[in-house]
Structures are given as structure tokens and as C-alpha cells.
Design goal:
The protein has 681 residues and is of the alpha+beta class. Helix content is 47%, strand content 18%.
Length: 681
């Protein structure tokens, strides 16, 4: 229980953490990368450090090494937690300049603490200070930066005054929010420490693979552009005067929503041609620039693809939205689209994917590594950016990287990367929160939920891969609160098929359906805690419901419109949200962060196994292991499996102490090891 006590009661090796150091750093903003204050760019440096021990005097210093030495001494003397606003940013700078990261006992971010209590996503220091009546934050520094003054050129006394103000506000807000008995607050603090270690460790990039992939994708994009151009010339009408395909020439970007709307939904195609307009005096023919409007036959009706809200709000110039989700629906309608339009949609999907990879990943990653002279990326992880508590990531998004980018990450030759994925985590949590006895029984007895649903729906057993994939998609859509119409559009399956699968699912797991309705009714009848406002001026009530973990889910009512018009007839809470929030929140907002905290605490404080936290992707955790003679002495998968199982065993104890209830589902991890070449070992 020692690890459990450390995490839930803010301790280190069973010693209470009673000292809190609030701090902030001011830095240059000289990086030429996308993130101007990037801590890992050698072009940036610390200008001043400010800190406060508990509610004592605030100190600021331009002597970076001296200030860090003082803070290190505080950390070494007794278990001490560091407090800040966006605190991982400050810690990254300080550790790179000599702060002893392993000496930090816990890491409290007041943005996360405020978010937990009030539901405000990523609150600023000014918003929090205003909430508690601490006065308006004076911001001379930002004013000077907006006027063009570089951070390093701002007079030191002004920076010190600004820094002292931030440290004072940070400490005061922390003392308002800190609750020794709020266990989720302490779990979140320990998770902040874990995520800080991930940011510091970073992701090592194989630069050769990065360059090669960038070239390959660039060439593929060029070929797709030519193919799209050829297809458009065949599909668009030709000018009746010139016989040329002027519509294709004047279409603009081939991947634009406007072109897709013209091809699929018969939106008007406008182009200009030269119409005969008499003769000049010398007898030469005279032409007049004339707009021509034509339409192609509709291949699909909007109702076939879009939800009512999407269908009723097209852009007057470009038509219906054509994002990745819509294209995925369209590509499943080959029979209706026809061979060439279907191929066009496939090319657009691939072109957009390549464009995103090039613009979001390979180009900025390449520029970043070139600018900083390093070989590691350091994505930022966020704990207060989602309504459910699910962790998110940016600069770049390490949780949503395409396979082409994932394949570029590597490690040292004598290290291994471990990927541990929770199996069916959200299905397990659906059983846990609903108490559905059949679902819990199936999970405990190893009965496959998707096979059981397929059998009940009358599909031939054993199912082929496509049928199983379809049923799995419908089941997860159902767990997330999706209705047959929505799931049909997302999966491309006929509504009747989705309805059959969903009926079979709820026939077997009827208590889950009852729970969804009861929980939605509970949200709808909960007291209104505040109002937000619709563009029309209508009040949108906001309420919240607390879970057994202490996490509070906030729900904002949505405006209901009369069918076929924009007239607002009332408000209602979203059924998919009330289904999804408690399940996604408990799975990826509670279970995964708690497990991260357990693994980190085991490794750091109890010498369970030496490893480095590398990345978390929703319900997956990546760690890096030394497989040399100094570490595991080889790819010892058994030792790594045992370590993860030890963490799972502790998770059950922690859950009971945390919530007062049993974690009554069989959580499982699929653990895989990869070498520096990306090969499984």
C-alpha cells in the first residue's frame, strides 16, 4: 500500500510532502521554431527565476545557477512539491539548467487544479486570479512585447516585478485550491510529474527515415495532383463554345469542398468563356467574357451523408463541409458515386492526408531538428484541455500521429521501446459504470463482446474480418452514445443493419441502455450551476455530475432548432455526451493517468525497474528500457511483463482506496517490445 499512499495522499516513500515551492521563470523568446519560447531550443535561455516557499517571502533572481542551487537544496532537504501555472514549461527550463528533476516529490499545476474544481478548460492565471478576487493582473511585459520589444530587452526591474506578481498569484491560488483530502488532485499532480518526465525524455527521431519519407510523400503528392487534374477534365462539362474544359481549368484547388460538392451533390459549376459578340471595325471577331453555369447530375442526396445539423448549414459559397469524416463516409458509397468520382474522392483523401503529414509533421519536425541541432522531439502533454480529463498533446500532437510518422521514432541501439496497450478499456469501463451484469460476466469469462453481438444479430458464425470490424464499429459507436442514423453515416453501413446490431447489443446488455437513460435524466434534472450564451442570446444552462473518482463532468445544454429551420425552440443536454463523458473520462482521464503514476512511482522510488517514460496515447503507454549490460542485460520481456502486471495489481488496490469501490473488471495489458529499427522482439 506504500505506492498507493504516496499517490493518493501526497507522500514520497511514505513521508508526507508538507513543503510547497511556487515558482515561475521568464525566458527569452528567440526560437525560430513554431513555438517561440521552446525550452529545448538552445537559442532560448532563462532571464529570471522567481520562487516562494509556502507563503513566505517571494524571491527573484537573474543568477540562474544560484537560484537553481537554492531550489535544489530545498528539494534535497525534505519531500517538497513544486507549484506553478503551466508548470511543466518552467520545469523543462529549470532541469535543462541544472534542477534535480528526481528530487521533485510532486508537481502541482494550478491550471489543472482549477479545471478539476470549476471545469474551465486551460484557465489563464488572469482568469483564476479574477475568479478569487485577487485583482487584475498587471501585464506591462505583454504590452512591451506587443509593441515589438524583445523579452531580453525589457528592463530587468520590470521583468522582476512581473515575475513577483505571477509567483504571488500562483501561491495564493494554490492555497485556495489545495485540498489534502482530494485524492484525484494528488493523482493529477503525480501525473503532471510523469508527463514532465515524458517531455524531458522526448521522442528520438531517425533523421534518415524522416528525410526519405518526406521525399516519398512529396513525389506521391505530385502524382495525385496530376491524377486529380485528369479526372476533373473528364468529369466536368466542356465549354460549348471552345470545346475546352474551362470549368476544370478554373476550378481552383482540386481538393476543395466546392469541387467535391459540384461532383457529388450537383452544386452549380461556374466558369467564364468568351462568347462571340460581333466584330470589330476591321472585321476581326469580337468576344465578350461570359459566365456559364452548369450542373452535373446528383450522385447522392445530402440526407444520405449528413446529419440534420450538418445538412441544414451548408456554406453558401462552397457547399457542405468535406472534412476527413465526411470523405470517409463518401468513399464507402462507391456504387452511388460511380467509378471515377469514387476514385476522385479517394485521391482527395490521400492528398489531404499527405498534405497534413507534410505540413504538420515532416516539414516542421525537419525544420525544428535543423534549427535546434538535436535529434529529439519534445511534445507537450495537457491535462486540462478536454471535457472528460483525457490527456491531449501538442507541438506536435504525439497522440494522433499517422503510421508514417510513428515509424520514424527510434531509440539507442542497446535500448528497447515497450508499448503497453489496455485491452478493451472503454468496454470494461462501460460495464463498471453501468453495473451491467451480463457485460461484466462476459468480460470476466473471456466472452468476446463483438462475437456475442454478431451472433445475437443473426450473422453467420464465425464472422469474417469485415463483418467483425463492422460490428465492432457499431458497438463502440453505441457505447459512445451514437444513434443508428449517426453510426450509419460514420460507418457507411445501412441504417437498418446498424439498427439490427444495436438492438442485438442492447438486448444482451440491456442494463447498460437503462444506465444511459437514467444518467441522462440525472444530468437533465441536475441544478443549473451557471449559464453560457448562444449567439441568439439564449441562455444555455451548464450543470455537472460528480463520479466516484471525484471528477466532475460538466455539461452545457445545446440549442434545439425546429426541423428545417434555424428557429430555436429550446435547449437539451446532448445524449451522446452524457453517455460518453463518464466512460471516456474514467478510462483515459482516471485509469490511464493513475496507472502512469503507479509505474513512475514504482520505478523512481521503489527500484522496481529502471525505465524512462516516453509517451502516452489514449489507452497506450510507451516506455524506454536499457537493454545493455547495465540495464536489463538483454530483451527480458518477462521482467517487463511482470513490472506492468505489478502496476496493474497496485491499480486495483489504489482504486479501492481512492473510490471505496472495487475495480470489478478484468483489466488486461498487451505488452510488446521493439528495437531501434522498429522490429518487434
Amino acid at each position: 500500500m506504500t505506492v498507493v499512499n504516496d499517490i493518493l495522499y501526497n507522500k514520497r516513500k511514505d513521508r508526507p510532502i508538507n513543503r510547497f515551492v511556487s515558482l515561475d521563470v521568464e525566458t527569452t523568446m528567440s526560437s525560430k521554431t513554431k513555438f517561440s519560447a521552446e525550452p529545448f531550443d538552445p537559442a532560448n535561455s532563462i532571464l529570471q527565476i522567481g520562487w516562494q516557499v509556502d507563503d513566505g517571502p517571494i524571491q527573484t533572481s537573474e543568477d540562474v545557477a544560484g537560484a537553481i542551487g537554492i531550489i535544489n537544496n530545498l528539494l534535497w532537504q525534505e519531500p517538497t512539491a513544486i507549484v506553478g501555472a503551466n508548470v511543466k514549461f518552467d520545469i523543462n527550463y529549470l532541469v535543462l539548467n541544472g534542477l534535480d528533476f528526481n528530487a521533485i516529490s510532486n508537481l502541482y499545476d494550478i491550471q489543472n487544479m482549477f479545471y478539476l474544481k470549476h471545469g474551465t478548460l486551460y484557465p489563464s492565471l488572469a482568469v483564476m486570479a479574477d475568479h478569487y478576487g485577487f485583482g487584475t493582473k498587471l501585464d506591462k511585459v505583454s504590452e512591451l512585447i506587443k509593441s515589438g520589444t524583445l523579452m531580453q530587452d525589457i528592463p530587468a526591474p520590470i521583468v522582476a516585478e512581473y515575475l513577483e506578481q505571477d509567483v504571488r498569484l500562483t501561491g495564493r491560488i494554490f492555497r485556495e485550491l489545495y485540498n489534502p483530502g482530494f485524492k484525484l488532485q494528488h493523482i493529477m499532480a503525480r501525473t503532471t510529474l510523469v508527463l514532465s518526465s515524458m517531455e524531458l525524455n522526448g521522442l528520438e527521431v531517425d533523421k534518415t527515415k524522416l528525410y526519405t519519407k518526406h521525399r516519398e510523400l512529396s513525389k506521391e503528392r505530385e502524382k495525385i495532383t496530376k491524377s486529380l487534374e485528369t479526372l476533373l477534365w473528364r468529369l466536368f462539362p466542356r465549354c460549348p463554345i471552345t470545346g475546352d474544359c474551362l470549368a476544370a481549368k478554373q476550378a481552383g484547388a482540386h481538393t476543395a469542398p466546392k469541387v467535391l460538392n459540384q461532383l457529388i451533390f450537383g452544386h452549380p459549376i461556374k466558369y467564364y468563356t468568351k462568347m462571340p459578340d460581333g466584330h470589330y471595325k476591321n472585321g476581326n471577331p469580337k468576344f465578350k467574357k461570359t459566365e456559364v453555369i452548369e450542373e452535373l447530375p446528383r450522385r447522392l442526396e445530402p440526407d444520405d451523408i449528413f446529419d440534420p445539423q450538418e445538412r441544414d448549414n451548408p456554406n453558401k459559397n462552397t457547399g457542405f463541409k468535406m472534412n476527413e469524416e465526411v470523405l470517409a463516409r463518401l468513399v464507402k458509397r462507391k456504387d452511388a458515386l460511380g467509378k471515377e468520382v469514387h476514385r476522385y474522392v479517394e485521391h482527395v483523401m490521400r492528398a489531404r492526408k499527405i498534405d497534413k503529414i507534410l505540413s504538420t509533421y515532416t516539414t516542421p519536425i525537419g525544420e525544428y531538428l535543423s534549427e535546434t541541432g538535436g535529434s529529439h522531439l519534445h511534445p507537450v502533454y495537457n491535462q486540462s484541455h478536454t471535457a472528460t480529463g483525457r490527456l491531449s498533446s501538442k507541438n506536435p500532437n504525439a497522440q494522433n500521429m499517422p503510421p508514417e510518422i510513428d515509424a520514424m521514432f527510434t531509440c539507442a541501439d542497446d535500448h528497447l521501446i515497450c508499448k503497453a496497450d489496455f485491452s478493451q478499456l472503454e468496454v470494461c469501463i462501460a460495464g463498471l459504470v453501468s453495473g451491467d451484469q451480463q457485460l461484466l460476466s462476459d468480460l470476466r469469462n473471456g466472452i468476446d463482446v463483438h462475437d456475442a453481438t454478431g451472433k445475437a444479430a443473426g450473422f453467420k458464425m464465425p464472422m469474417d474480418k469485415k463483418t467483425r470490424r463492422d460490428i465492432k464499429g457499431v458497438n463502440f459507436g453505441t457505447i459512445y452514445g451514437g444513434k443508428p442514423v449517426t453510426i450509419s453515416k460514420m460507418t457507411g453501413l445501412p441504417k437498418a443493419t446498424v439498427q439490427t446490431i444495436q438492438d442485438a447489443f442492447f438486448s444482451r446488455y440491456y442494463e447498460l441502455e437503462q444506465y444511459y437513460q437514467e444518467y441522462h435524466d440525472k444530468v437533465s434534472s441536475s441544478p443549473v450551476e451557471r449559464n453560457e450564451w448562444h449567439a441568439s442570446g439564449m441562455a444555455l444552462p451548464v450543470t455537472s455530475v460528480e463520479s466516484v473518482t471525484g471528477r466532475r463532468y460538466w455539461y452545457k445544454a445545446q440549442a434545439k432548432t425546429k426541423w428545417g429551420s434555424d428557429k430555436i425552440v429550446g435547449t437539451a443536454y446532448s445524449y451522446p455526451q452524457t453517455c460518453n463523458y463518464p466512460i471516456q473520462g474514467m478510462a483515459t482521464g482516471d485509469i490511464v493517468p493513475a496507472y502512469l503514476a503507479i509505474l513512475y512511482t514504482l520505478s523512481r522510488d521503489y527500484d522496481a525497474q529502471p525505465m524512462a517514460m516516453q509517451r502516452t496515447i489514449h489507452d497506450s503507454i510507451e516506455t524506454r528500457w536499457d537493454a545493455s549490460d547495465k540495464g536489463l542485460a538483454g530483451p527480458d520481456k518477462e521482467a517487463i511483463d511482470n513490472f506492468h502486471q505489478q502496476g496493474l495489481d497496485i491499480l486495483y488496490d489504489l482504486w479501492l482506496e481512492w473510490t471505496g469501490t472495487d475495480l470489478a473488471v478484468p483489466l488486461k495489458l498487451d505488452v510488446e517490445l521493439y528495437n531501434h529499427e522498429g522490429e518487434e522482439v
